[in-house]
Amino acid sequence: MSTFTIDRRKAAVFGAAAAVRLLLFTAFPGLPELLTARVEISTPVTSFKRLQEGLFLYNHNVSPYDGGVYHQAPILLSLFSLLPNSTTYPSFTYLLYIVIDVLSANALMKISESGEAGSSKLYTSPRKDKKWTSYAIAAAFLFNPFTIATCIGRPTSVFTTCAILHAVSAAIAGQSFTSMFTLAIASYLSMYPLLLFPPLVLLCYDRRSSKQQDSSVYNFVAKNAASMVGLLYLLAQMSSTITGSWEFMRSTYGVQLLLPDLTPNVGLWWYFFIEMFDSFRNFFLGVFWIHLSSYVGGLTIRLRRQPLFVITTLLGIFAIFKPYPSISDTSFFLAMLPLYRHVFPLMRYTFLALSTILYATLLGPAFYYLWIYAGSGNANFFYAITLVWSLGLSILVADALFAVLRDEWEVERPEMRGKEIRQV
Amino acid sequence: MSGLLSSGALLRRDPRLLKVPPYLSFLCIVIGVAWLLVLPLDNYSRKTYISENALLPGQVHTYFAGSDQNVFRGYKKEVDALEGKGNTEVNDKLEEFFKASGLKVARQKYEYKSAGETYSGENIYAILHAPRGDAEEAIVLVGAWTNVEGELNKSGVALVLTLARYFKRWSLWSKDIIFLITADSRAGPQAWVDAYHDTHQKGIQSLPVKSGALQGAVVIDYPFDHRFESIHIVYDGINGQLPNLDLLNTVVAIASGQMGIGASLQKMWRHTDTYKDRLTTMLRGMLNQGLGHASGPHSSFIPYHVDAITLQPYGEGWQDEMAMGRVIESTFRSLNNLLEHLHQSFFFYLLMQSSRFVSIGTYLPSAMLVAINFTIMAIFLWVKSASPPATAGKVASATGEKSAPLMLVQEGDAKALVPEIFAEEKERDFFLPLAVVVGSHFLGVLPLYLFNHTPEIMLPAVFFIFAVMNFVFPFLASTVLTRSFAPTSQQYQLIKAFSLLFLGMFLSTLATLNFSLAFLVGLLSAPLTYIRSYPGRPITTVFFIGLLSLLAPTTVFLAGTTYWNLGIGEVLKEAAFGWDVWGMNTQVVVWCVWWPAWVVGMIQLAGKPKDEGGSIKI
To answer: pTM score, two decimals?
Structure first.
């Protein structure tokens, strides 16, 4: 009886989320186009419009990477060419994106139900009982305006989000191969999820099933790394068969690495590289990428006991420092954060950080309008707001990190509980 | 450094600190208003100047005189003869004239529907291809057949026809010149500009002939026969956007410097350059900007980043229509000099007279301060809502930490004694407050839809019903809230915190787009900062309910219409027209920003917090 009622609640959350999206899709027919064109939602590597362009070329037997507009993985072409044309029958595309969102939420619920956030194998938070139900967490993801806007704007980043969430949920379930497989798909689609491999493999190791209990951590990591490489090779080989050449490597991952497209977005790279003298470009590309990847090692080691939190923090950091971030990455981070409800009381600047993000959410489009349409502003207006946006996100990430560290610290030194402390 | 940090930590615990924000936010409002009031002074405003050197206003000799006056008289007679004729008949004749001048002519039909009425007509325009240009840029000379007041623009249209013939003779134009005669001053220009940029709605014809990117537009509104004294310049665009200040400066420099014609703004017919006159001009400008409506045919051009102004001759004087023509000629010669789009000078400014202004850097702080007052209070209330009840803090501070109640904390094997007040974390229950605030913002869609989709005849009735409902609704909502959820005083604090946070956020964003509207709405909702529930103090509650009722959007609207002697239906019809045709956004701000904040304020006043001890004092 109880399982039946639980399923009903889940169905209610998912149904409501799907209904809201369907309503927005159907009641405002201009909305999907409008949001697709927003730079905050669509980046050069995720834009639905560019996907359409690639699809058109692909269906006319021209290499989709000709013309330098399409920078997404070839498998998306196969997927979308199976669907009826999205301009004549848009409902199929809408349904696909809604299903993806619901699948993501489902994986998120599984992660939440496992209780991994509150008590991992090596660490149990004293506050772990203070948590939200998985329905609340799914609802917080599904009804987040950023998630809804992302769904309506249809960038392909939602596939990556979905894949990462499934990788994490599989890792928690102890299915390390499934986890590696989904992470390989995510990395294949967007490349940056590859950086999640270290914490994810540790999560797999911590939650491995009883028959793998005897393997050492090195063996385990090496085995999974090998399967990851194998899977990635398989996917790449498959893509080259689809498109008929290896050109896609350059146009997809090359674009992420070398940043040739400087379309504005909510991140910090585009403006910096607009201003950059060409002779320094390669150096700073290296610096930016090293900076982004340097967090992985440090966090994985420092928070060895809570690999899921490493993943959460990294997602937050990616949302700020990735080459082409969008609000979809932010919504992903904000979806993972409620899993750590138990450390919220330890966070100090939540209100400030969230107000900053809200301010930036409003001012961003306003300044973009002043720059692009009204002509009374300039690029600095929008860039200033992306700085504020990143500042808000960084405060949130850093504050969550502080709270988790403090939570760990208070277990070691209970007498310090509730005392003022100073960060040095 | 460490000393500084620890004193900061001490300060955070200081109860006095929590007393500061209300005063600080009040100070923000006072400074914000005072800031605005000092702007007209010499030390805070600047004299206007031409930024774009290419314009060279008034540097050329104007030749529009002599025999052209006879041409003007001829056209004038023809226009007079066309008075009262149908739109198509008028355009047939105008087409003849333009063709006779050797210009390419085209027409455009349009039809808009708004508030149950249809606005239709036909625009006619002629293009003079630049002898020295490549049809990549164009400037527009507009003469609406009827002006904003609905009068026949007799001399204006005749002047456009004369100038078209006259300009055709010159070989010095490097930009195309488009002569546009719209059927009216409200829908016609909008239809034409929309179609020029291919963004027109259904019911508007596309333009058969086009030229290059529009660089500027000048509108002549000259509806009388006699000589005039000065020129009145109208510059407000839709949604408070303004044309580049250089355009205005150019016209002022030409009119007053070259031709000796005075220029005035914002219907200040007699400007004596006193503080009072400057302030009045500025406030009138702010009101027009805040309302965001089109003030002339030029307004429709501005959203497309085409700088445009309307020139209205007024008064009884010795300037004749040829002087007006020379002003236009000289202005067009200046615009013709432009090497790139007007961009040098300011797009955000307040004018105090035709030669004095303040730029955004100087005036923006006043609106921002008003908006920030809400944010300060929001943060204050958020912090306050989680702090432990005042009594516990008092015990601790009065008797020192030693005697504060201690509690045993046990983690695994370790045990510790911790002062109880620190361990106590008052959790915020923010779901209900957030739902109330977000819900009220979404509810704003209701009046927005209602007032933009009601036919004209019903509008006054709908308004009165809404106004009455408006005063009943918060009490109903409050009763429902108290009955079904019984919010605590913490939740009321959070309701207020979220409401003020949103208000502050919306207003500071708006201040960058439409300063005046943000300032006006901010000022009118300033009392909301200090509103809370006063359980057991009915007189105070009634006083505040009275005050808030006076500041309700509906009351302010009624007061405004009464003060300016306008009909309610008329204004609402205009608003709906603005929404449907001009793309005016003022209603969104009123119904989705201001009204929800007001409703939440009223709900707080009517509210009864569950535990009455904990309500805050400000």
So the answer is: 0.86
